[in-house]
Specification:
heterodimer; A: 262 residues; MetI-like fold; 79% helix; B: alpha+beta; six-stranded mixed beta sheet; five-stranded antiparallel beta sheet; 28% helix
Chain lengths: 262, 330
């Protein structure tokens, strides 16, 4: 009996919060057939938003892959002063609201702040521009890769790496030939997770980008604008694209996950 | 000289893992580092390999000071208790690893790996992954991998510790034969005195971070430097306050100047051997004797016998202060 109540509660919860809203988005998107949807996502503005989103996400994924690997190796393989601090700081982006992250970035890189002015004088625009959006996205997706890699690194242990050292392999050779192959699925999983987070980011990017149409507007920002402008079909269509990406990511994650334990 | 360790001390926080240890390991020999778990023997092996660095002291390998050399440049082969097999590589690739790192020509690598796989009797499994091998086969693969780079010294950290008893016995005999073929200076760590006695030319006993005694298995068994070594290497019991081996006790029917009176508590017949539990002046002790002897004395609970040490009995010298701090009686 209790089992059934649990199932019904879980299912109802998912229905109300996930399946019904997403289903309605799908329904509304295609209510008038495929061509309005296609027209909506092939406007110059929508296509541009899509491209900006991809650019930001790709740079953020590259940055976080490099940082995530270094941080995970440090946390899993080394004991050093400040390790506990690094361990705690990595999780900070999970706790801080993305909007606060955006504001904090403006306080550092804004045109009227010392660092921002310095960069601006050298022709580098951070806020209301791609670099700021990449920074904001990196920040919010920072912990995902390291948190995925640390337990796997701890589980495989250091002995294979030590064996490689005694056989003459340098630190870099050992990483490339021994460590990387051992963590490749966890790494792929972390990259996909980071990519999903980066594509869907709204708050931090909204603050630092200014949402300039045709310049710094990402897909999520475009959805909000279309919705506020009473152009629901544009909002629904872009939402549909984001949802499809999320589902594809979900499938990839599920394909990758079991391999880690084989 | 194969390996020379001088004055090595290592601490992990407050814990002293090694306390001023000095040890010479001759070239070409098979040496066991024997001692209880946590006594520092694995730490010493890892310091020789360069996987740990000593707080003080010097490690020389084949005449060169290796104390500050990284493991890559010490030319040592290291075999781990849990094999440390490269899981994503085939057996062939595992063994070839060190040669490929050294950029040896492909033909040479193939030939050398084949020879080594034959040497350790796993040539049939060259294309398998380590997960498809048994524990004993994996450990032999790890050994072939370590030997591939023709190391100056071969270091084995509890190499048979993760294997079951039967395989362990086989591999022990096999390691001895392999060493007689290859002649590389070999040091292995074990906490199993039987294993050390059976395989090694020389045994170094390490306990609580200190070197207790070094010698041939016979030396240590017959002339233990102290009570600890004597206790660790074989069964002991106490007669009139002295440690003595139970098989060095003689039970007699008639008392004389050398004997001590004792009462039999229990007689256990274990095939050829008979174990006799006794009480002597309120102290428990036990003696090992033959079935023949037990029958002759008609040993049974409650009977009075007279216990003497055989003339060749082993005993540790009385505790006395010694220099260098390497051999301290307890």
């Amino acid at each position: 009996m209790g089992k059934w109540i649990g199932r019904i509660v879980a299912l109802a919860y998912l229905m109300l919060l996930l399946i019904v809203p997403v289903g309605i988005v799908f329904f509304r998107t295609f209510r008038h057939g495929f061509s309005p949807f296609w027209d909506a996502i092939t406007t110059t503005q929508a296509e541009h938003a899509f491209r900006v989103t991809l650019e930001v996400a790709i740079f953020a994924v590259i940055g976080n892959t490099v940082f995530g690997l270094i941080a995970a190796m440090l946390l899993a393989r080394h004991r050093f002063p400040g390790r506990a601090a690094l361990n705690a700081l990595i999780d900070l982006p999970l706790a801080v609201s993305p909007v606060v992250v955006g504001l904090a970035l403006i306080l550092v890189y804004g045109r009227f702040e010392p660092i921002g002015r310095f960069l601006d004088n050298h022709g580098i625009k951070v806020i209301f521009s791609l670099p700021g959006m990449v920074l904001a996205t990196i920040f919010v997706s920072l912990p995902l890769l390291a948190r995925e890699l640390v337990p796997v690194l701890e589980e495989i242990g250091i002995e294979q790496e030590q064996a490689a050292w005694t056989l003459g392999a340098s630190g870099l050779q050992t990483f490339r030939r021994i460590t990387l192959p051992a963590i490749r699925w966890a790494l792929a999983y972390g990259v996909v997770l980071t990519l999903a987070r980066a594509l869907g980011e709204f708050g931090a990017v909204a603050v630092v980008s200014g949402g300039l149409v045709g310049k710094t507007q990402t897909l999520t920002l475009y959805v909000q604008q279309e919705f506020q402008n009473f152009d629901p079909i544009g909002a629904y269509a872009a939402s549909f694209v984001l949802a499809v990406i999320a589902i594809v990511v979900l499938i990839i994650i599920n394909v990758l996950r079991p391999k880690e334990h084989s | 000289m194969g390996i020379s360790v001088r004055g090595v001390t290592k601490r992990f926080g407050e814990f002293v893992a090694l306390d001023d240890v000095s040890l010479d390991i001759p070239s070409g020999a098979l040496t066991a580092l024997l001692g209880p778990s946590g006594g520092g023997k694995s730490t010493l092996l890892r310091i020789i390999a360069g996987l740990e660095s000593p707080d003080s002291g010097v490690v020389e390998i084949a005449g060169t000071d290796a104390t500050t050399l990284p493991p890559q440049r010490r030319n040592v082969g290291f075999v781990f208790q849990h094999y440390a097999a490269f899981k994503h590589m085939t057996v062939f690739k595992n063994v070839a690893f060190g040669l490929e790192i050294r950029k040896r020509p492909k033909d040479e690598v193939r030939k050398k790996v084949k020879e080594l796989l034959e040497l350790v009797h796993i040539e049939k499994f060259a294309d398998r992954l380590p997960s498809e091998l048994s524990g004993g086969q994996r450990q032999r693969m790890a050994l072939a991998r370590a030997l591939a780079v023709e190391p100056e010294v071969l270091l084995l950290d509890e190499p048979f510790g993760a294997l079951d008893a039967q395989v362990r016995k086989e591999l022990r005999a096999w390691l001895r034969r392999l060493h007689d073929e290859v002649h590389v200076t070999t040091v292995f760590v074990t906490h199993d005195q039987e294993e050390a006695m059976e395989v090694a030319d020389t045994i170094a006993i390490i306990s609580a971070g200190r070197l207790e005694q070094v010698g041939t298995p016979d030396d240590l068994y017959d002339h233990p430097a102290n009570d600890f070594v004597m206790t660790f290497l074989g069964p002991v019991t106490t007669l009139s306050g002295d440690l003595v081996r139970p098989h060095d006790l003689e039970l007699r029917a008639v008392p004389d100047a050398e004997t001590t009176e004792a009462t039999v508590v229990r007689v256990m017949r274990l095939g050829f051997e008979v174990r006799v539990e006794l009480v002597c002046a309120g102290q428990d002790l036990w003696a090992q004797t033959t079935r023949e002897n037990a029958d002759r004395l008609d040993l049974q609970a409650g009977r009075t016998v007279h216990v003497a040490r055989t003339t060749s009995a082993t005993g540790a010298p009385d505790p006395q202060p010694q220099g260098a701090g390497t051999q301290t009686a307890r």
